[in-house]
Amino acid sequence: MEDKHHFKRAVENEHSYLQGMRDGVRLIVALLHDRVTPDTKREMQEADPNEY
């Protein structure tokens, strides 16, 4: 019975960890996206037009 409880907690902890990672990635993407102004986007496209 105790092993079942530990397994359930481990699954819950893993789920929470993965959700936190996803949230962190979304935050970073949003912050980086806000930093890209039209001028910087144009410069990035000129540097590598196939990438953007």
Give me the secondary-structure topology.
Blueprint: H1 2-35, H2 38-47
Descriptive keywords:
mainly alpha; 52 residues; rod-shaped; 2 helices
Provide a brief overview of the structure.
The chain has 52 residues and is mainly α. The chain contains two helices and no strands. The protein is rod-shaped and about 60 Å long.
Class based on secondary structure composition and strand pairing = mainly alpha
Unreliable stretches: none
Count of individual helical segments: 2
Order of secondary-structure elements: HH
Main β-sheet description: none
Oligomer: single chain
Mean pLDDT: 86
Count of β-strands:
0
Mass-distribution shape: rod-shaped
Instruction: Work out the helicity level.
Output: over 70%
Distance between the termini: 54 Å
Residue share in β-strands? under 5%
Radius of gyration: 20 Å
Describe this structure in words.
This protein has 52 residues and is mainly alpha-helical. It contains 2 helices and no strands. The mean pLDDT is 86.
